[in-house]
Amino acid sequence: MGTVTRGTTNPNRLRRMDRWIAATHGAELRRAADPVAVDLGYGAAPWTAVELLGRLRTAAPRARVVGIEIAPARVAAAGPYAREGLVFRHGGFEIPIPQRPHLIRAANVLRQYAEHEVAAVWQRLCARLAPATAHSRGGLLVEGTCDEIGRRHVWVALGPEGPRTVTFATRLGSLDRPSDLAERLPKALIHRNVPGEPVHAFLRDFDRAWAAAAPYAAYGARQRWIRTVRDLTADWPVTDGPARWRQGEVTVRWAALAPRP
Q1: By percentage, how much of the chain surpasses pLDDT 90?
Q2: Reduced to 3 DSSP states, what percent helix, strand and coil does the chain have, rounded to the nearest 5?
Q3: Model confidence over 66-95: pLDDT tens digits?
Q4: Does residue 168 contact residue 250 with C-beta atoms inside 8 Å?
């Protein structure tokens, strides 16, 4: 179920997303009896699935990855890369595996879809996640977009209950201003970067805080970014702290950036 994507992929393209997942969702994966992650729409080559397995296992050594592609030829081409903990399956948004996955990563998959189609896809994928329990928040869907070599990336994290947060991540040395990340907003937000919408107001305030933090540039782009995000916390519900900011990231509650009805 779904549409064949262009299949564009490059080694190391999703490193920022993967590292964030390992850092923020690793504990949930470790607690799971059989932690299964899905790389949905991995593309014409299986690099991202191979890399996801390696990065998840730094946080959860028992993690397994299933790469899912809607194009049968891509599944066949990925076959030689299968190994212990990594398999490839033909399928789409129905997630054709018997387990309820603890993670679904869908990077650069919804870019070609219409905005009005996103909510239904999110709902379908969230319904396949491992459910929340008394000791777990449940599985995680991470859906977003990045540039061709992974310097700039924006993603939404969703649980079984729906969207939770939006993360902006970048190689700081490539950044002129934070609103440069607007071109990598996920489909749910990219057409909402206009006056009157929350994401537009956020990026406007982000740029203003970045300009105000210009004196910190003398200490490097990282220190300028940290100061910028610290100032943002006065008006926006930032959910992470300096340890993640140092990576060129900032995570904000979805409710603060969600499109207006």
Answers
A1: 92
A2: 45, 20, 35
A3: 999 999 999 999 999 999 999 999 999 999
A4: yes
